[in-house]
Write a structure and sequence with these properties.
- The structure holds 2 protein chains of 2 kinds.
- Chain A is elongated and about 75 Å long.
- In chain A, helix 2 runs parallel beside helix 3, helix 3 crosses helix 5 and helix 5 packs parallel to helix 6.
- The relative contact order of chain A is 0.10.
- Chain A is α/β, with parallel strands linked by helices.
- Chain A is built from 14 helices and 18 strands.
- By secondary structure, chain B is an alpha/beta fold.
- Chain B folds into 3 domains: 102 residues, Alpha-helical ferredoxin (Fumarate Reductase Iron-sulfur Protein, Chain B, domain 2, Orthogonal Bundle); 162 residues, FAD/NAD(P)-binding domain, CATH 3.50.50.60; 123 residues, FAD/NAD(P)-binding domain (3-Layer(bba) Sandwich), CATH 3.50.50.
- Chain B is built from 18 helices and 13 strands.
- In chain B, helix 9 runs parallel beside helix 11 and helix 14 runs parallel beside helix 15.
- The longest helix of chain B has 20 residues.
- In chain B, 48% of the residues are buried.
- Classes of the chains: A alpha/beta, B alpha/beta.
- Chains A and B meet through helix 11 of A and helix 2 of B.
């Protein structure tokens, strides 16, 4: 019997699908609509001293026929009076007592923090999330990512908050930093009950070629925005992994955020240690109904794998994410092209010839476009199988017998690594590379 | 079974002759362009007679560089817009698209090409440059696709160009001979205007060159002459009663239709004789003009037809009936056509034989002969040393398009016996290069 309910640092919810603090959680209306649609929790749009916003506010990166593959915004925290938000929090909790309503907060002084915490607790919030991430606008005023980028300051504020709060405290981290473990550890040391990440990434999504201003253009000018959407998922997952593998930080639960749109994204975040996930861009693109696909897919995955709760597989990929130096240098794969499936686009050929290791050849017969792998040149890099537009046409086949295992780390310990510029132990020594002048011949043949 | 009501107004005509490849809108073009895989050494480029860099122009559409996309197209093919619409893309570029091998519909290359060039033409974007004058002059006979392509290319190379056209419209069969559901007159003429405005070649209309004297004058006044004369009127079949009222050649029928639209008279029952693409067009057009019954009659089997399968399907879809293995032996009727007498044919020892013991008459009010166009051999005889092959095609050098008379170059239907607009466009362009090379040596 699959049970999707979660207990996240004491915050209970019917499922791990939460809305991130963002435009979709701007009002009680939206959050109630989301809960009706199937979301298990919502982090309220950040509360604080209400702001004044600009028009317009969003920009997007479209790729091929996909709109909003990347998305950025220059919208600030809530522009609605606190009293209105508090009243609506109370109302939402009345209708949905079992759903998680978390108040995202961003204020300046210790006094303000203590006051607003009391206010949201009185309104019935199940938890608090500290917005230390906004990389636009608010950071210019010493808040948001300005805090997230200063572990010491962050720690102090977390201390103020945990001292005053009776409900669980989640610290939301900014990715605009070299080592995510620095603010992560500071938050844990400050007493946070949980972490969430990532907030948006400082970005410019494009330049208008007529006004020469970045998108979104506000009267001829623009500002850096916060980047999110499917494009940021790889960065988010890497940072999640760093936190989840850290012995101290991983003692608190982590809510995963960053480009999550499908059930598969959800599963991947959970496999890297997240025990709730937060979504914004996918909802801004498709509406709250997108959760149907996530939930159905997650259930299907769990059923097929025999899991009852998400805790059964949370963090399951973490032991397999290691440092490069621990990878087996004896493992060898070679590309194999299925001649029957190949449609002759020859993208693998040109990708390999121009972009990799010149390990694919074309037949000399001009009517035959089916390429073949030059096995002795193939380093198993994967590029051909990635560019191939046909499902399962190019596969990477293991060619070593699996009996040998040696890592860079072990070779270093054995004093068996290249150390001089022309060392005989260079991995590519003797590996086939065409003569530079062969390039001219290829161009001429064309 | 008649599918179409006889059109009596322009609107009804346009409805019956609805464009087969309508212009794409921006969204459709954006999504369609995104499907292109950007194949290496793309098969579509190889399949295009003018070798347009198709993956590049599609990528340029997708990246909103429509002007650049049009440049890519026109760089290879001066009639890029018309070809995007009228090319039999299913057997050329789109037929070569690798998606076909994946049982996925190929990228709609023709419509994308039309989308890009139409946009550029409609915006009247200046994208061509006339070459610095080289002081030399070229005369072009025939303002069809071969002649226009030759004129454009020659202007970029710095030649002065005069085109001599027998009719009062440019673009030859593009306006006079292509089925109206494939392209409109406006679309064809718009492109020619666009080219002419930027490249500044002269077209002298109603200026047929028919005599030795006229040719001698051209030879005297110009440094080179390009023959883009196409083919002649529909050839005669030599049938009994062929000159009865109501017997018309397909070329003449289509020309009348293109010029008069819904005012063209098409009676109730029509027989179309032939099995090529022109026969399919004529039959389809007759049906779309509201004929109650249109019968396509071909002397051999369905498999032996010269027409593309999709052209046949289009005619059948318009309500045309077909008769195979029938050979016309006489046109019957009292002054006016009343029917066609056919004899059954059969294959005997690999040869098609007519069985005169098995004949029948198909009643009709009109006969359209789509059995090929006459050659211009009378005209060719006026030119000294002009080599003509056994099929009355002008023989040219395959790279320079120069004829056996070094002053003359040729291209289009006159050298291939009747092919696509795109072939003519390629020939004309290459001939201009050939002339340039010849006169510079």
């Amino acid at each position: 019997m699959i049970d999707l309910s979660v207990n996240f640092a004491g915050i209970k919810a019917p499922n791990p699908f939460w809305l991130a603090s963002a435009p979709p959680t701007n009002s009680g209306y939206q959050i109630m609509k989301a809960f009706e649609a199937g979301w298990g929790g919502a982090v309220w749009k950040t509360l604080g001293v209400p702001v004044v916003n600009v028009s317009s506010r969003y920009g997007s990166v479209d790729y091929r026929n996909t709109r909003m593959m990347g998305f950025n915004n220059i919208e600030l925290i809530t522009d609605r009076p606190l009293a209105d938000n508090l009243r609506e929090i109370e109302e939402v909790k009345k209708y949905f007592p079992d759903h998680a309503v978390i108040a995202s907060l961003m204020v300046e002084s210790r006094k303000e923090w203590q006051q607003i915490i009391k206010d949201v607790e009185n309104a019935g919030a199940d938890g608090i999330e500290l917005n230390f991430g906004c990389p636009h606008g608010m950071c210019e005023r010493g808040m948001g990512s300005a805090v997230g980028q200063e572990p010491e300051v962050l720690k102090t504020i977390v201390e103020w908050v945990t001292e005053a709060a009776n409900v669980p405290v989640i610290t939301k981290l900014s990715p605009n930093i070299s080592h995510i473990t620095d603010p992560g550890l500071a938050a844990v040391e400050g007493g946070t009950d949980a972490l969430s990440l990532i907030n948006t990434i400082k970005s410019i999504v494009g330049i208008d070629l007529d006004s020469y201003a970045p998108y979104p253009v506000v009267d001829g000018k623009g500002s850096n925005g916060g980047y999110c959407g499917p494009a940021v998922k790889p960065i988010a997952m890497h940072m999640l992994k760093d936190l989840a593998q850290h012995p101290e930080i991983s003692k608190v639960p982590i809510s995963g955020i960053g480009g999550i749109e499908t059930w598969r994204d959800v599963v991947e975040f959970i496999l890297l240690g997240a025990t709730s996930i937060q979504v914004c861009t996918a909802v801004m693109h498709y509406g709250f109904g997108i959760v149907r696909e996530m939930e159905a897919g997650l259930r299907q995955f769990m059923e097929e794998k025999g899991y009852n709760t998400i805790y059964d597989f949370a963090g399951k990929a973490l032991p397999n994410v290691t440092e490069w130096k621990h990878l087996n240098l004896k493992h060898q794969v070679i590309a194999e092209i299925n001649q029957d499936k190949c449609i002759g686009c020859d993208l693998c050929y040109i990708a390999c010839d121009d972009g990799a290791h010149q390990a694919i050849s074309l037949p000399s017969d001009a009517n035959n476009r089916i390429p073949s792998i030059i096995e002795e040149n193939c380093v198993g890099c994967n590029l051909c199988s990635l560019v191939c537009p046909v499902e399962e046409c190019i596969t990477m086949v293991k060619t070593d017998d699996g009996t040998e295992h040696i890592t860079w780390n072990e070779r270093t310990l054995n004093d068996d690594v290249p150390v001089t510029f022309d060392d005989d132990r260079a991995g590519g020594k003797g590996h086939f590379v065409p003569k530079p002048s062969d390039a001219l011949k290829v161009a001429k043949d064309k | 079974m008649a599918e179409y009501k006889k059109p009596t107004t322009k609107e009804e005509f346009d409805k019956n002759f609805k464009q087969k490849k309508p212009l794409m809108n921006d969204t459709e073009a954006y999504y369609e362009a995104s499907r292109c895989l950007f194949c290496y050494d793309a098969p579509c480029i190889q399949a295009c007679p003018t070798h347009i860099d198709i993956p590049l122009f599609i990528k340029q559409i997708h990246t909103d560089n429509i002007t650049g996309s049009s440049k890519t197209i026109f760089d290879a093919n001066w009639l890029g817009n018309a070809c995007g619409i009228v090319c039999p893309t299913g057997v050329l570029c789109e037929g070569a698209c690798v998606y076909n091998l994946q049982d996925v519909p190929p990228v709609q290359i023709g419509r994308l090409q039309n989308y890009a060039t139409n946009k550029t033409i409609s915006a009247d974007k200046i994208i061509f440059k006339v070459g610095e004058s080289n002081g030399k002059k070229i005369a072009i006979i025939g303002a069809g696709p071969a002649g226009i392509a030759c004129a454009c290319e020659a202007r970029t190379l710095g030649f002065d160009v005069d085109v001599f056209e027998a009719k009062s419209n440019p673009s030859g069969l593009m306006v006079h001979g292509i089925a109206p559901y494939k392209i409109t007159n406006e679309e064809v003429l718009k492109e020619i205007d666009y080219l002419q405005n930027q490249l500044g070649f002269n077209i002298k209309y109603d200026s047929a060159i028919n005599s030795k004297e006229e040719l001698l004058k051209l030879e005297n006044d110009y440094d080179a002459i390009f023959l883009g004369v196409g083919l002649g009127k529909t050839a005669t079949l030599g049938l009994d009663g062929e000159n009865k009222e109501g017997v018309i050649g397909a070329v003449e029928f289509i020309e009348e239709l293109r010029m008069k639209h819904h005012k063209t008279q098409v009676p109730k029952k029509v027989v179309v004789i032939g099995g090529g693409n022109t026969a399919m067009d004529a039959a389809s057009e007759s049906a779309r003009m509201g004929a109650r019954k249109t019968v396509l009659a071909y002397r051999n089997s369905k498999e032996k037809m010269g027409a593309y399968g999709f052209e046949y399907d289009l005619a059948i879809g318009a309500g045309v009936d077909s008769l195979f293995n029938v050979s016309p032996i006489a046109i019957v009727g009292n002054g006016k056509v009343e029917g066609v007498k056919f004899a059954k044919t059969e294959m005997v020892d690999g040869r098609l034989q007519t069985n005169m013991n098995n004949t029948f008459i198909v009643r009709c009010d009109m006969v359209i002969k789509a059995t090929g166009q006459a050659k211009q051999d009378g005209f060719y005889e006026l030119i000294d040393n002009l080599e003509i092959d056994s099929k009355t095609r002008i023989v040219v050098d395959e790279t320079t398009f120069q004829t056996s008379n070094s002053k003359y170059f040729a291209g289009g239907d006159a050298i291939n016996g009747g092919a696509e607009v795109v072939n003519a466009a390629y020939d004309g362009k290459m001939a201009a290069q050939g002339i340039h090379q010849f006169l510079n040596n």
